[in-house]
Specification:
heterodimer, A: 110 residues, mainly beta, 5-stranded antiparallel beta sheet, 0% helix, globular, B: mainly beta, 7-stranded mixed beta sheet, 4-stranded antiparallel beta sheet
Chain lengths: 110, 114
């Protein structure tokens, strides 16, 4: 059975801290790994990773895929209160069928 | 800018009622998806569609059906709602083809079945 596991499930930090969110997977026919940010409404796309070891960056956020370890991390540096959200990891297992992890609820306190 | 809209943000229905959840996208995407999101379980795929009148079961199709009569519209139907279908329902759409494309999500419908 295809499975995606995120850790931690919940994280509370202070503004300015750096956080690392983890995603591990066991999926047949892996095609890509995606990260989404979900605030109160629709999940919004952050990154898509297909190749191992290549870091993707967008401002203070970065992510990398390790196909050998079947995992990915999402880093957020110099966190701000606007980074508070649920971060979702999903793996595409062929034909755009995504399997999602449980999500990490990140809370940034001022 | 892709826009995916869902007919209701909040819905309350009684056990046994037939429920329709509507999703419309305005970017001419071939692919459309229905998920439900529950605490501790993440998003789970219910049904998806690659084209008009075409549908495939996802991971948890039991108790649900779908309809795709027009390219821009994908409906999720609960034939006889039950309390265990209380959840947040999210619709998504994406471009077709063998390439890998991100999915664009709607704002969700929070359904409560009493």
């Amino acid at each position: 059975e295809d499975k995606v596991v995120q850790s931690p499930l919940s994280l509370v930090v202070h503004e300015g801290d750096t956080v690392t969110l983890n995603c591990s997977y066991e999926v047949t026919n892996f095609r890509s790994l995606l990260w989404y940010k979900q605030e109160k409404k629709a999940p919004t796309f952050l990154f898509m990773l297909t190749s191992s070891g290549i870091e993707k960056k967008s401002g203070r956020l970065s992510s990398i895929l390790d196909k050998k370890e079947l995992s990915s991390i999402l880093n957020i540096t110099a966190t701000q209160t606007g980074d508070s959200a649920i971060y979702l990891c999903a793996v595409e297992r062929g034909a755009q069928k995504l399997v999602f992890g449980q999500g990490t609820r990140l809370t940034i306190n001022p | 800018d892709v826009k995916v809209t869902q007919s209701s943000r909040y819905l309350v229905k009684r056990t046994g009622e037939k429920v329709f959840l509507e999703c419309v996208q305005d970017m001419d995407h071939e692919n459309m998806f229905w998920y439900r999101q529950d605490p501790g379980l993440g998003l789970r795929l219910i049904y998806f569609s690659y084209d008009v009148k075409m549908k495939e079961k996802g991971d948890i199709p039991e108790g649900y059906s779908v309809s795709r009569e027009k390219k821009e519209r994908f409906s999720l139907i609960l034939e006889s709602a039950s309390t265990n279908q209380t959840s947040m329902y999210l619709c998504a759409s994406s471009l077709p083809g063998t390439g890998i494309h991100e999915q664009y999500f709607g704002p969700g419908t929070r359904l409560t079945v009493t």
